[in-house]
């Protein structure tokens, strides 16, 4: 079995492929060929987000690949700026329509704050109550069968504690920036202790690490 087909088991029993095609910074017209090429060459996990705006291109790439929907794992994300129940539910339904699918395998809260406020400093603004509303929409969408698993992205330890305390529902995943030279050990340790999968994005430093011989 190729590593592209190897999986981890999330805390709700869903299997997630270890490696995904990330589609950040790929516009809709440019997303068609990479998606098709990846799926035809063994990838089974495609990672997108409502904020990327490329779901329609991914849809066309999936169609062109000939790979069945049930054989593909799709991750998407509610916008960091979407901080209400109705905005989050709107993002979910937009992605379902744009991807032309009945369900999304994993949906994440893309950021604990609107992006303009985001950093890991303890003094940054917090949106604990707003994230609870977003989470409520995602839990509901999962109960309706629209999502198979739900999680977060870029959340620190306090963000997680507040979310679980308010809802009692533990995320399956926290997708964070993680690469050589940027490993965020405190966040990784806490999430692993709580049986939440750490998923790396920009694991090659958006390509820059490939230029580093060491």
Detailed description of the structure:
By secondary structure, the chain is of the alpha/beta class. The chain has a single domain (7-211), classed as NADP-dependent oxidoreductase domain (TIM Barrel). It has 6 helices and 9 strands. The protein has a 7-stranded parallel sheet. Strands 1-2 form a two-stranded antiparallel ribbon. Strand 4 (45-47), helix 2 (55-65) and strand 5 (73-78) form a beta-alpha-beta unit. Helix 1 (28-40) packs parallel to helix 2 and helix 4 (128-143) packs across helix 5 (157-167). The radius of gyration is 17 Å and the shape is globular.
Key terms:
214 residues, alpha/beta, TIM Barrel, 7-stranded parallel sheet, two-stranded antiparallel sheet, 6 helices, 9 strands, 35% helix
In short:
The protein has 214 residues and is α/β, with parallel strands linked by helices.
Chart the SSEs and their pairings:
Elements: E1 7-9, E2 15-17, E3 21-22, H1 28-40, E4 45-47, H2 55-65, E5 73-78, H3 85-99, E6 104-109, H4 128-143, E7 147-153, H5 157-167, E8 173-177, H6 185-193, E9 197-201
Parallel strand pairs: 3-4, 4-5, 5-6, 6-7, 7-8, 8-9
Antiparallel strand pairs: 1-2
**What series of H and E elements makes up the topology?**
EEEHEHEHEHEHEHE
Structural class given helices, strands, pairing? alpha/beta
CATH topology: TIM Barrel
Q: Unreliable runs, pLDDT <50, ≥5 residues?
A: none
Going across the biggest sheet, name each strand in turn: 3-4-5-6-7-8-9
Question: How many β-strand stretches?
Answer: 9
* Assembly type: single chain
How many helices? The count is 6
């Amino acid at each position: 079995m190729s590593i592209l087909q190897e999986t981890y088991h999330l805390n709700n029993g869903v299997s997630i492929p270890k490696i995904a095609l990330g589609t950040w910074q790929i516009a809709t017209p440019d997303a068609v060929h990479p998606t098709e090429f990846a799926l035809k060459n063994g990838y089974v996990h495609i990672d997108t987000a409502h904020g990327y705006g490329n779901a329609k291109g991914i849809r066309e790439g999936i169609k062109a690949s000939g790979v069945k929907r049930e054989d593909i794992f799709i991750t998407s994300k509610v916008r960091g700026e979407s901080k209400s129940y109705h905005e989050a539910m709107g993002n979910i339904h937009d992605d379902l329509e744009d991807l032309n699918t009945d369900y999304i395998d994993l949906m994440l809260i893309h950021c604990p704050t609107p992006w303009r406020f985001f950093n890991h400093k303890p003094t940054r603004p917090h949106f604990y109550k707003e994230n609870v509303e977003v989470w409520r929409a995602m839990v509901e969408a999962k109960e309706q069968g629209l999502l198979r698993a739900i999680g977060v992205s870029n959340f620190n330890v306090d963000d997680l504690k507040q979310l679980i305390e308010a809802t009692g529902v533990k995320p399956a995943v926290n997708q964070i920036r993680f690469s050589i030279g940027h490993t965020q050990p405190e966040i990784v340790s806490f999430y692993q202790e709580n049986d939440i999968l750490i998923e790396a994005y920009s694991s090659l430093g958006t390509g820059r690490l490939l230029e580093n011989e060491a």
